[in-house]
Inverse folding.
C-alpha cells in the first residue's frame, strides 16, 4: 500500500470519477485505474462498483468503510514527512490568506530576509481552512488566517484589526448609509464570518451582488463604473494607489476585520518571533490599523 494508491482512492472519492481525479492528479486514467486495482488486490476486496463502467464509479460498502482508514493513513504519512523537516530549523514554512500576502507581506519579507541572512522563507497562499489543517499536520510552521473557526487544536492569536471601508471608482457621497446601497452593484468578498453575518442582516439574500469573488486577483476586472466593494482599510488604501478609487466610511457598516496568526512548530519559536517583529513594524505604519503584536 503506497501513498500514490491512497491518494488515487481519495481523489476518486472526492471528485466522483476517475477522469476528474486523473485530471487533478496530472496522471492518465489507465495509470490511476492500475493504482486502484493494485490497492484492491492488497486489501482483498473491491473499493468501487464497476457495473456502469469505471468512469461513473460508486463506492462499495467496503470502499465506504475504507475512507476513514485511508484518511488516517494519509495523515500519518504527512506527519512522517514532516519529521524530515525538523533539521531545517533555518527555514520558515508559512502561509497567508490572499489579501494579506498581496497588500501587506512584500515589505515584511524584504525586511526579514535583509536582516536575517541565515534564514530562508518557504511561502504559499492558503485559505484559512487549508492553512489550519496544514498547521495541525506539521506542514506549516506559521500561518496568517482570517477565520479562526477552522482551527481544531492550538490557538488563533489576534495580530491586528482594521476598519472596513466603502470603495468605488464612482464618486459616491462622502458618507455612505448602508441602507441606501444597491447590492446589485456590489463586488463582494466574504472577508470573514463577522462580515458575512453583517451582510446577511442588512441585505436581501434573494438579491445577488454583481460579482462574488474569493480573491482580490480580479478586482480590476469587476470594480468598474458605479460598482462598489467593502474592503479592509489596508486593502482599499493599496488598491486606490493603483487605480483611482473613492474611499468612504459607512454608517452602520461592517465590524472591523480581525486578522489572526497561528503558530505551529515551536522548535522554530525564534524565527517565528523574528517574522512577527517585522510584521508588527509594517502594520503599525498603516493608518487605521490597531496592532496587537508586541515584538
Amino acid at each position: 500500500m503506497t501513498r500514490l494508491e491512497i491518494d488515487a482512492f481519495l481523489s476518486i472519492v472526492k471528485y466522483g470519477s476517475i477522469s476528474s481525479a486523473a485530471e487533478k492528479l496530472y496522471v492518465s486514467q489507465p495509470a490511476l485505474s492500475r493504482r486502484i486495482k493494485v490497492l484492491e488486490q492488497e486489501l482483498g476486496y473491491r473499493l468501487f462498483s464497476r457495473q456502469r463502467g469505471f468512469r461513473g464509479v460508486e463506492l462499495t460498502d467496503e470502499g465506504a468503510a475504507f475512507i476513514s482508514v485511508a484518511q488516517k493513513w494519509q495523515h500519518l504519512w504527512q506527519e512522517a514527512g514532516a519529521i524530515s523537516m525538523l533539521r531545517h530549523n533555518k527555514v520558515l514554512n508559512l502561509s497567508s490568506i490572499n489579501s494579506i500576502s498581496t497588500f501587506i507581506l512584500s515589505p515584511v519579507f524584504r525586511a526579514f530576509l535583509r536582516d536575517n541572512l541565515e534564514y530562508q522563507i518557504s511561502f504559499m497562499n492558503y485559505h484559512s481552512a487549508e492553512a489550519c489543517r496544514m498547521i495541525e499536520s506539521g506542514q506549516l510552521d506559521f500561518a496568517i488566517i482570517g477565520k479562526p473557526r477552522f482551527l481544531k487544536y492550538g490557538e488563533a492569536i489576534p495580530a491586528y484589526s482594521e476598519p472596513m471601508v466603502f470603495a468605488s471608482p464612482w464618486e459616491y457621497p462622502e458618507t455612505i448609509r448602508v441602507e441606501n446601497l444597491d447590492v446589485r452593484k456590489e463586488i463582494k468578498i466574504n472577508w470573514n464570518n463577522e462580515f458575512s453575518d453583517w451582510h446577511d442582516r442588512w441585505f436581501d439574500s434573494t438579491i445577488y451582488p454583481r460579482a462574488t469573488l474569493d480573491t482580490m486577483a480580479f478586482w480590476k476586472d469587476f470594480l468598474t463604473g458605479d460598482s462598489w466593494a467593502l474592503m479592509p482599510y489596508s486593502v482599499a488604501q493599496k488598491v486606490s494607489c493603483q487605480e483611482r478609487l473613492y474611499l468612504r466610511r459607512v454608517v452602520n457598516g461592517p465590524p472591523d476585520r480581525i486578522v489572526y496568526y497561528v503558530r505551529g512548530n515551536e522548535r522554530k519559536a525564534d524565527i517565528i518571533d523574528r517574522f512577527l517583529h517585522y510584521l508588527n513594524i509594517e502594520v503599525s505604519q498603516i493608518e487605521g490599523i490597531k496592532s496587537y503584536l508586541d515584538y
Q: What stands out?
A: The chain has a mean pLDDT of 88. The chain is about 40% helix and 20% strand. The first strand starts at residue 48 and ends at 49.
